[in-house]
Amino acid sequence: MIRTLLWLLGGAILGGIIHIVVILTLPALAEDTIWTRVTALDAVNRIVVLPQVKPGEPNPLGLDPDLAYGVCQIDLKAGPAYLSGTLPDAFWSVALFNQRGIITYSTTNRDGIGQTLEMGIFNADQTRLLAQQQLEIAEGLLVVESDTDDIFALVRLAPPHQAMRARFEAELAKVKCGIKDLGAATPLDPTR
Amino acid sequence: MVTVALGVGFGLSYYALTDGRLFGAAVVGPWTAWPDVGSATPNPYTRGHLTRTAALQLGTSEGLQFTATTDSDGQALSLSCTYRIDGKTPLATFWTLVAVNDAGVNLARPGEDPAMRSSALARADDGSILIYVGKRLAPQNWLELTGEGPFRLVLTLYDTAVFSGFGTGGETMPTIQREGCA
Protein backbone atom coordinates (compact mmCIF):
# COMPACT_ATOMS: atom_id res chain seq x y z
CA MET A 1 0.00 0.00 0.00
CA ILE A 2 2.65 2.47 1.12
CA ARG A 3 4.85 1.34 -1.74
CA THR A 4 2.04 2.08 -4.25
CA LEU A 5 1.48 5.51 -2.71
CA LEU A 6 5.19 6.24 -2.92
CA TRP A 7 5.21 5.26 -6.59
CA LEU A 8 2.24 7.55 -7.19
CA LEU A 9 3.94 10.37 -5.30
CA GLY A 10 7.07 9.82 -7.36
CA GLY A 11 4.95 9.97 -10.51
CA ALA A 12 3.34 13.22 -9.41
CA ILE A 13 6.74 14.80 -8.65
CA LEU A 14 8.11 13.66 -12.00
CA GLY A 15 4.93 15.02 -13.60
CA GLY A 16 5.60 18.37 -11.93
CA ILE A 17 9.10 18.39 -13.39
CA ILE A 18 7.75 17.53 -16.86
CA HIS A 19 5.20 20.33 -16.47
CA ILE A 20 7.87 22.90 -15.60
CA VAL A 21 10.08 21.76 -18.49
CA VAL A 22 7.15 21.91 -20.94
CA ILE A 23 6.12 25.41 -19.85
CA LEU A 24 9.67 26.78 -19.96
CA THR A 25 10.68 25.20 -23.28
CA LEU A 26 7.44 25.75 -25.18
CA PRO A 27 8.24 29.33 -26.34
CA ALA A 28 11.60 28.17 -27.73
CA LEU A 29 10.18 25.10 -29.48
CA ALA A 30 7.27 26.79 -31.27
CA GLU A 31 7.67 27.08 -35.03
CA ASP A 32 4.53 29.02 -35.97
CA THR A 33 5.11 32.14 -33.89
CA ILE A 34 3.88 35.71 -34.10
CA TRP A 35 7.27 36.63 -35.56
CA THR A 36 6.93 34.19 -38.47
CA ARG A 37 3.36 35.37 -39.05
CA VAL A 38 4.42 39.02 -39.16
CA THR A 39 7.44 38.20 -41.34
CA ALA A 40 5.04 36.65 -43.86
CA LEU A 41 3.35 40.07 -44.20
CA ASP A 42 6.47 41.50 -45.85
CA ALA A 43 6.39 44.67 -43.74
CA VAL A 44 10.14 45.33 -43.41
CA ASN A 45 10.80 49.06 -42.99
CA ARG A 46 7.33 50.02 -44.13
CA ILE A 47 3.83 50.13 -42.71
CA VAL A 48 1.52 47.42 -43.96
CA VAL A 49 -2.16 47.94 -43.17
CA LEU A 50 -3.75 44.62 -42.31
CA PRO A 51 -7.02 43.70 -44.03
CA GLN A 52 -10.17 43.91 -41.93
CA VAL A 53 -11.36 40.74 -40.30
CA LYS A 54 -14.61 39.56 -41.88
CA PRO A 55 -17.16 37.24 -40.28
CA GLY A 56 -16.58 33.62 -41.23
CA GLU A 57 -12.94 34.13 -42.15
CA PRO A 58 -9.92 32.88 -40.17
CA ASN A 59 -8.27 35.38 -37.88
CA PRO A 60 -4.88 33.94 -36.87
CA LEU A 61 -3.55 37.27 -35.58
CA GLY A 62 -6.54 37.77 -33.27
CA LEU A 63 -7.49 41.14 -34.73
CA ASP A 64 -10.43 43.21 -33.57
CA PRO A 65 -12.77 43.77 -36.58
CA ASP A 66 -13.51 47.33 -35.43
CA LEU A 67 -9.89 48.49 -35.54
CA ALA A 68 -7.40 49.25 -38.29
CA TYR A 69 -3.90 47.80 -37.82
CA GLY A 70 -0.56 48.86 -39.28
CA VAL A 71 2.54 46.65 -38.87
CA CYS A 72 6.17 47.52 -39.52
CA GLN A 73 9.11 45.15 -39.02
CA ILE A 74 12.49 46.65 -38.13
CA ASP A 75 16.05 45.44 -37.65
CA LEU A 76 17.91 47.85 -35.39
CA LYS A 77 21.31 46.42 -36.37
CA ALA A 78 21.11 48.59 -39.50
CA GLY A 79 20.56 51.75 -37.43
CA PRO A 80 17.98 53.42 -35.21
CA ALA A 81 14.40 53.25 -36.41
CA TYR A 82 11.67 55.84 -36.65
CA LEU A 83 7.93 55.82 -36.79
CA SER A 84 6.50 59.09 -37.96
CA GLY A 85 3.14 60.39 -39.06
CA THR A 86 -0.07 62.17 -38.20
CA LEU A 87 -3.09 60.09 -37.39
CA PRO A 88 -6.77 61.08 -37.41
CA ASP A 89 -8.39 62.42 -34.27
CA ALA A 90 -9.48 59.12 -32.73
CA PHE A 91 -8.09 56.56 -30.32
CA TRP A 92 -4.85 55.02 -31.46
CA SER A 93 -2.02 53.16 -29.79
CA VAL A 94 1.45 51.86 -30.58
CA ALA A 95 3.14 48.70 -29.34
CA LEU A 96 6.63 47.35 -29.93
CA PHE A 97 6.98 43.56 -30.00
CA ASN A 98 10.20 41.60 -29.82
CA GLN A 99 10.90 38.37 -31.69
CA ARG A 100 9.28 36.29 -28.98
CA GLY A 101 6.01 38.25 -29.27
CA ILE A 102 6.52 40.06 -25.97
CA ILE A 103 5.40 43.68 -25.91
CA THR A 104 8.37 45.71 -24.74
CA TYR A 105 6.73 49.12 -25.05
CA SER A 106 3.22 50.41 -25.56
CA THR A 107 1.48 53.74 -25.37
CA THR A 108 -1.75 55.40 -26.47
CA ASN A 109 -2.52 58.83 -27.88
CA ARG A 110 -4.04 59.78 -24.53
CA ASP A 111 -0.52 60.08 -23.11
CA GLY A 112 -0.31 63.71 -24.23
CA ILE A 113 0.92 63.12 -27.77
CA GLY A 114 -2.40 63.92 -29.50
CA GLN A 115 -2.49 63.11 -33.19
CA THR A 116 1.23 63.18 -33.89
CA LEU A 117 3.14 59.94 -33.84
CA GLU A 118 6.88 60.59 -33.69
CA MET A 119 8.93 57.79 -32.27
CA GLY A 120 12.62 56.97 -32.35
CA ILE A 121 13.56 53.39 -31.52
CA PHE A 122 17.11 52.63 -30.41
CA ASN A 123 18.96 49.59 -29.16
CA ALA A 124 21.20 49.79 -26.10
CA ASP A 125 24.34 50.89 -28.00
CA GLN A 126 22.47 53.53 -29.97
CA THR A 127 20.88 54.86 -26.80
CA ARG A 128 24.34 55.24 -25.26
CA LEU A 129 25.56 57.11 -28.33
CA LEU A 130 22.50 59.29 -28.20
CA ALA A 131 23.16 60.17 -24.57
CA GLN A 132 26.80 60.99 -25.38
CA GLN A 133 25.81 63.35 -28.18
CA GLN A 134 23.66 65.34 -25.75
CA LEU A 135 21.31 66.44 -28.49
CA GLU A 136 18.19 68.32 -27.73
CA ILE A 137 15.22 66.08 -28.29
CA ALA A 138 12.24 67.69 -29.98
CA GLU A 139 9.11 67.96 -27.89
CA GLY A 140 6.64 65.19 -28.57
CA LEU A 141 9.30 62.79 -29.86
CA LEU A 142 9.14 59.49 -28.05
CA VAL A 143 12.54 57.92 -27.53
CA VAL A 144 12.24 54.21 -26.91
CA GLU A 145 15.01 51.80 -26.09
CA SER A 146 14.68 48.23 -27.26
CA ASP A 147 16.51 45.27 -25.68
CA THR A 148 16.61 43.36 -28.95
CA ASP A 149 17.41 44.31 -32.55
CA ASP A 150 14.64 42.37 -34.26
CA ILE A 151 11.35 44.06 -33.44
CA PHE A 152 8.09 45.02 -35.01
CA ALA A 153 5.82 47.96 -34.33
CA LEU A 154 2.04 47.71 -34.35
CA VAL A 155 -0.19 50.77 -34.64
CA ARG A 156 -3.83 50.32 -33.72
CA LEU A 157 -6.29 52.92 -34.93
CA ALA A 158 -9.96 52.94 -33.97
CA PRO A 159 -12.27 54.64 -36.48
CA PRO A 160 -15.30 55.98 -34.55
CA HIS A 161 -17.55 54.50 -37.23
CA GLN A 162 -16.99 51.88 -39.91
CA ALA A 163 -17.99 54.42 -42.59
CA MET A 164 -14.72 56.25 -41.81
CA ARG A 165 -12.64 53.10 -42.04
CA ALA A 166 -11.30 53.55 -45.59
CA ARG A 167 -10.14 57.12 -44.86
CA PHE A 168 -8.57 56.07 -41.56
CA GLU A 169 -6.75 53.17 -43.21
CA ALA A 170 -5.43 55.55 -45.87
CA GLU A 171 -4.10 57.86 -43.13
CA LEU A 172 -2.54 54.90 -41.34
CA ALA A 173 -0.82 53.76 -44.55
CA LYS A 174 0.86 57.19 -44.75
CA VAL A 175 2.76 56.65 -41.51
CA LYS A 176 6.46 56.37 -42.26
CA CYS A 177 8.52 53.65 -40.69
CA GLY A 178 12.06 52.55 -41.27
CA ILE A 179 15.72 52.72 -40.42
CA LYS A 180 17.55 56.01 -40.22
CA ASP A 181 20.93 55.81 -41.88
CA LEU A 182 23.35 57.13 -39.27
CA GLY A 183 25.71 58.43 -41.96
CA ALA A 184 23.16 60.76 -43.54
CA ALA A 185 21.52 63.03 -41.00
CA THR A 186 21.03 63.13 -37.26
CA PRO A 187 19.19 60.06 -36.06
CA LEU A 188 16.82 62.20 -34.07
CA ASP A 189 14.99 63.97 -36.83
CA PRO A 190 12.80 61.45 -38.63
CA THR A 191 11.46 64.06 -41.09
CA ARG A 192 14.80 64.69 -42.70
CA MET B 1 4.50 5.83 -12.21
CA VAL B 2 5.39 6.78 -15.77
CA THR B 3 1.69 7.03 -16.67
CA VAL B 4 1.01 9.29 -13.69
CA ALA B 5 4.07 11.40 -14.51
CA LEU B 6 3.15 11.85 -18.15
CA GLY B 7 -0.52 12.47 -17.32
CA VAL B 8 0.25 15.05 -14.64
CA GLY B 9 3.06 16.70 -16.62
CA PHE B 10 1.38 17.16 -19.97
CA GLY B 11 -2.19 17.37 -18.65
CA LEU B 12 -1.29 20.15 -16.24
CA SER B 13 0.64 22.00 -18.96
CA TYR B 14 -2.28 21.77 -21.38
CA TYR B 15 -4.69 22.97 -18.71
CA ALA B 16 -2.40 25.84 -17.68
CA LEU B 17 -2.23 27.17 -21.22
CA THR B 18 -5.87 26.69 -22.21
CA ASP B 19 -7.98 27.44 -19.16
CA GLY B 20 -5.20 28.85 -17.05
CA ARG B 21 -7.45 29.69 -14.12
CA LEU B 22 -5.08 28.47 -11.43
CA PHE B 23 -2.00 29.81 -13.18
CA GLY B 24 -1.59 33.14 -14.98
CA ALA B 25 -5.20 34.04 -15.77
CA ALA B 26 -7.48 36.29 -13.75
CA VAL B 27 -11.15 35.38 -13.40
CA VAL B 28 -14.07 37.78 -12.92
CA GLY B 29 -17.36 35.85 -13.05
CA PRO B 30 -17.45 33.97 -16.38
CA TRP B 31 -14.73 36.21 -17.84
CA THR B 32 -11.03 35.35 -17.86
CA ALA B 33 -8.11 37.55 -18.82
CA TRP B 34 -4.33 37.26 -18.78
CA PRO B 35 -3.34 40.53 -17.05
CA ASP B 36 0.37 39.88 -17.62
CA VAL B 37 0.02 39.44 -21.38
CA GLY B 38 1.03 42.99 -22.30
CA SER B 39 3.86 43.26 -19.81
CA ALA B 40 7.49 43.46 -20.85
CA THR B 41 8.35 40.68 -18.39
CA PRO B 42 5.49 38.17 -18.48
CA ASN B 43 5.54 35.16 -16.17
CA PRO B 44 6.39 31.74 -17.70
CA TYR B 45 2.73 30.70 -17.98
CA THR B 46 1.83 33.90 -19.79
CA ARG B 47 4.85 33.36 -22.08
CA GLY B 48 3.46 29.91 -22.90
CA HIS B 49 0.03 31.43 -23.53
CA LEU B 50 1.58 34.10 -25.80
CA THR B 51 3.35 31.38 -27.78
CA ARG B 52 0.25 29.26 -28.01
CA THR B 53 -1.99 32.06 -29.32
CA ALA B 54 0.70 33.72 -31.53
CA ALA B 55 -1.64 36.71 -31.86
CA LEU B 56 -1.14 40.47 -31.74
CA GLN B 57 -1.77 41.04 -28.05
CA LEU B 58 -2.53 44.34 -26.34
CA GLY B 59 0.19 46.13 -24.41
CA THR B 60 -0.42 46.97 -20.77
CA SER B 61 -1.23 50.60 -21.55
CA GLU B 62 -3.35 49.74 -24.59
CA GLY B 63 -5.96 47.60 -22.93
CA LEU B 64 -6.98 44.14 -21.83
CA GLN B 65 -8.97 41.34 -23.39
CA PHE B 66 -11.51 39.20 -21.52
CA THR B 67 -12.86 35.92 -22.84
CA ALA B 68 -15.92 33.96 -21.71
CA THR B 69 -16.61 30.37 -22.71
CA THR B 70 -19.46 29.83 -20.25
CA ASP B 71 -22.41 31.83 -18.98
CA SER B 72 -22.59 33.07 -15.39
CA ASP B 73 -24.05 29.73 -14.30
CA GLY B 74 -21.07 27.85 -15.68
CA GLN B 75 -22.80 26.29 -18.71
CA ALA B 76 -20.88 26.37 -21.98
CA LEU B 77 -21.99 29.06 -24.45
CA SER B 78 -23.89 27.53 -27.36
CA LEU B 79 -25.09 29.07 -30.61
CA SER B 80 -28.44 27.40 -30.18
CA CYS B 81 -29.19 29.72 -27.24
CA THR B 82 -29.72 33.44 -26.74
CA TYR B 83 -27.74 35.18 -24.01
CA ARG B 84 -28.27 38.44 -22.14
CA ILE B 85 -25.16 40.41 -21.17
CA ASP B 86 -26.12 42.67 -18.39
CA GLY B 87 -24.31 45.03 -16.04
CA LYS B 88 -21.37 47.40 -16.04
CA THR B 89 -17.96 47.18 -17.62
CA PRO B 90 -14.72 48.45 -16.07
CA LEU B 91 -13.57 51.97 -16.89
CA ALA B 92 -12.18 52.14 -20.44
CA THR B 93 -12.03 54.61 -23.33
CA PHE B 94 -14.11 52.15 -25.33
CA TRP B 95 -14.61 48.43 -25.72
CA THR B 96 -15.70 45.96 -28.35
CA LEU B 97 -17.56 42.67 -27.99
CA VAL B 98 -17.25 39.88 -30.54
CA ALA B 99 -18.36 36.26 -30.69
CA VAL B 100 -15.86 33.77 -32.11
CA ASN B 101 -15.62 30.00 -32.41
CA ASP B 102 -12.75 27.87 -31.07
CA ALA B 103 -10.63 28.71 -34.12
CA GLY B 104 -11.12 32.45 -33.57
CA VAL B 105 -13.44 32.90 -36.57
CA ASN B 106 -15.94 35.75 -36.12
CA LEU B 107 -19.50 34.40 -35.92
CA ALA B 108 -21.47 37.58 -36.65
CA ARG B 109 -24.01 37.30 -39.43
CA PRO B 110 -22.38 38.40 -42.70
CA GLY B 111 -23.55 41.88 -43.64
CA GLU B 112 -24.07 42.88 -40.00
CA ASP B 113 -21.53 44.62 -37.78
CA PRO B 114 -18.90 42.01 -36.82
CA ALA B 115 -18.48 43.62 -33.39
CA MET B 116 -20.59 45.39 -30.79
CA ARG B 117 -18.96 48.63 -29.72
CA SER B 118 -19.47 50.58 -26.50
CA SER B 119 -20.03 53.87 -28.32
CA ALA B 120 -22.88 52.48 -30.42
CA LEU B 121 -25.16 51.12 -27.70
CA ALA B 122 -28.54 51.99 -26.25
CA ARG B 123 -27.89 52.21 -22.51
CA ALA B 124 -29.93 52.46 -19.33
CA ASP B 125 -29.95 55.75 -17.38
CA ASP B 126 -27.26 54.52 -15.01
CA GLY B 127 -24.91 53.69 -17.90
CA SER B 128 -25.27 49.95 -17.57
CA ILE B 129 -25.44 47.81 -20.67
CA LEU B 130 -27.90 45.22 -21.88
CA ILE B 131 -26.84 43.25 -24.94
CA TYR B 132 -28.54 40.22 -26.44
CA VAL B 133 -26.29 37.75 -28.19
CA GLY B 134 -27.63 34.98 -30.38
CA LYS B 135 -29.27 33.98 -33.59
CA ARG B 136 -32.86 34.85 -32.68
CA LEU B 137 -34.24 38.37 -33.06
CA ALA B 138 -33.77 40.32 -29.83
CA PRO B 139 -34.73 43.83 -28.66
CA GLN B 140 -32.36 46.73 -27.90
CA ASN B 141 -28.71 45.88 -28.54
CA TRP B 142 -28.44 42.67 -30.50
CA LEU B 143 -25.24 41.00 -31.64
CA GLU B 144 -26.59 38.79 -34.39
CA LEU B 145 -24.77 35.51 -34.84
CA THR B 146 -24.86 32.62 -37.23
CA GLY B 147 -23.66 29.01 -37.16
CA GLU B 148 -23.87 26.03 -34.82
CA GLY B 149 -22.00 24.69 -31.83
CA PRO B 150 -20.06 26.28 -28.97
CA PHE B 151 -18.66 29.80 -29.06
CA ARG B 152 -16.68 32.30 -27.06
CA LEU B 153 -17.37 35.93 -26.22
CA VAL B 154 -14.40 38.27 -26.37
CA LEU B 155 -14.66 41.63 -24.65
CA THR B 156 -11.70 43.91 -25.41
CA LEU B 157 -11.29 46.97 -23.20
CA TYR B 158 -9.12 49.68 -24.72
CA ASP B 159 -7.17 52.10 -22.57
CA THR B 160 -8.56 50.64 -19.39
CA ALA B 161 -7.84 51.00 -15.70
CA VAL B 162 -8.81 47.42 -14.93
CA PHE B 163 -6.36 45.56 -12.64
CA SER B 164 -4.25 48.72 -12.39
CA GLY B 165 -5.45 49.44 -8.88
CA PHE B 166 -7.10 52.69 -9.95
CA GLY B 167 -10.56 51.17 -10.22
CA THR B 168 -13.28 51.16 -7.63
CA GLY B 169 -11.87 48.08 -5.94
CA GLY B 170 -13.84 45.04 -6.97
CA GLU B 171 -13.62 44.78 -10.73
CA THR B 172 -17.10 44.57 -12.15
CA MET B 173 -17.84 42.70 -15.32
CA PRO B 174 -21.26 42.15 -16.85
CA THR B 175 -23.07 38.89 -16.22
CA ILE B 176 -23.98 36.46 -19.03
CA GLN B 177 -27.45 34.96 -18.55
CA ARG B 178 -28.95 32.27 -20.73
CA GLU B 179 -32.34 33.40 -22.04
CA GLY B 180 -33.64 30.47 -24.01
CA CYS B 181 -32.55 27.79 -26.41
CA ALA B 182 -33.98 26.68 -29.71
Structural overview:
The complex is a heterodimer of chains A (192) and B (182). In chain A, 28% of the residues lie in helices and 28% in strands. With 192 residues, chain A is α+β, with helices and mostly antiparallel strands. Chain A folds into two domains: 30 residues; 146 residues, Immunoglobulin-like, CATH 2.60.40. A five-stranded antiparallel beta sheet of chain A has the order 1-2-8-4-5. A four-stranded mixed beta sheet of chain A has the order 7-6-3-9. Chain A starts with a helix and ends in a 13-residue tail after the last strand. The mean pLDDT of chain A is 87. With 182 residues, chain B is α+β, with helices and mostly antiparallel strands. Chain B has one domain: Jelly Rolls (Sandwich). Helices cover 15% and strands 31% of the residues of chain B. Chain B contains two helices and ten strands; from the N terminus they run αββαββββββββ. Chain B is globular and about 55 Å long. The interface between A and B is large, with 59 and 60 residues.
